[in-house]
Amino acid sequence: MSNTTPVRTVIVGCGMISAGGYQPRCQAYPHRIELVGYYDQDEERASALAERNGGHVYKSLDEVLNDANVEAIVNLTLHISHYPVSLAALKAGKHVYSEKPISIRTDEANELVETAEAMGLKLACAPSAILGYVQQNVWQRIREGEIGDVISAIGNFGGPLEHWHPSADAFLMHAGPFRDVAPYPLTAMTTMIAPVKTVHGFARVAVPKRILHQGPRQGTEFEVNEKDHGFAVLEFDAPQKAGAHGFIYHSFTVASGIPPYEIHGTAGGFSLQAHDDGRGIKKFTPRDGWQDEPSPPKAFTGLDWGKGVADFADAIRSDRNPRCNGAQARHALEVCERIIESSDVGRPVDVVSRFRAPQPVDSVAPWEDAS
Ligand SMILES: NC(=O)c1ccc[n+]([C@@H]2O[C@H](COP(=O)([O-])OP(=O)(O)OC[C@H]3O[C@@H](n4cnc5c(N)ncnc54)[C@H](O)[C@@H]3O)[C@@H](O)[C@H]2O)c1
């Protein structure tokens, strides 16, 4: 009989999204995920999560990786630690679900994907909003031809991060808006259209010196090392004869009013969130223009951080490809890296990575308890 017990999982990195997102939402799917413990380089943060609902507080990453009871880790450290923590976990035989970006550089992401394959382990990566009922609903209707041939998509996300995030310096010094937030529309676009084959990027450092406005280090000045403002034109590797094109705008300087995600076809279009679920859908038709639609039944309000981990846990137990796959996350990262390169060299640049397209969510989703 196949093993259907929940996957014994440790959260590594116990900051804002662990406390407010992953811990409560993973605990919403106890038939898939058992949170057996927590590790953070700041032990108080790990202890705070364990105090809420039990679980072991690990003193080091080695202690997590040497614990034979642990099957998987959820890597919620900051960007620069995603690669070394995930690589160490894979080498120790643990399955890995990582927050985005999968790593800072594409060669690191290649190593992660190759190590997972060589070790026979699952490597999954956020964002998981594509699993939400809104994105799944729109994707299905696109596959059924409701908006005709897809011709383009646009995406936008960002804003002046240092005004609300206590670790904004880490985001601006090591990741920048492309690596940090472009994975939201890029995951939706590359799932619903095709991988990206060429990018033409325009990006710059717009505000090189900033001050943290939130958290215990409020008032700290920092220098921005990554391009903090820009946009890019994308060409998809799409089957349509005339091709399909995209535009993404990502800035940690300005919050633009460009819609977060639109997808356009020869017979209509959809407008929705790319980074969460449950905020409704707008549909465009040539006859009626843009009209509001209610969210589909079961749509979650906000982002359900647990769905991606539950799908990953189910993929471990049934030995299938996780839908939020490491190879697709590597592609999204490479698109971002090539956008910066294109901006530097002043011409379009090709993207070489590809991935196996994710499966749509079945009528009984992997996070639902069918028993
Ligand atoms: N905050 C958000 O809204 C948000 C949304 C989506 C995704 N994310 C992603 O999630 C990740 C975490 O974001 P956050 O907002 O929770 O940040 P955060 O700074 O609040 O938390 C990060 C935690 O990781 C710990 N940490 C860092 N390096 C570590 C290491 N090597 N070993 C152990 N612990 C380590 C830090 O001590 C900290 O507690 C980021 O990569 C970010 O891109 C954040």
Spatial separation of the terminal alpha carbons: 16 Å
Chemical compounds bound to the protein? nicotinamide-adenine-dinucleotide
**Which parts are unreliable, with pLDDT below 50 for 5 consecutive residues or more?**
none
Order of helices and strands: EHEHEHEHEHEHEHHHEEEEEEEEEHHE
In the CATH hierarchy, what is the architecture of the largest domain at level 2? 2-Layer Sandwich
Mean pLDDT score: 96
Radius of gyration: 20 Å
- CATH topology of the largest domain, what is it called? Dihydrodipicolinate Reductase, domain 2
Give the helix/strand class.
alpha/beta
What proportion of the residues form beta strands (DSSP E)?
Answer: 15-25%
Number of strands: 17
* CATH classification class of the largest domain: Alpha Beta
Helix content: 25-40%
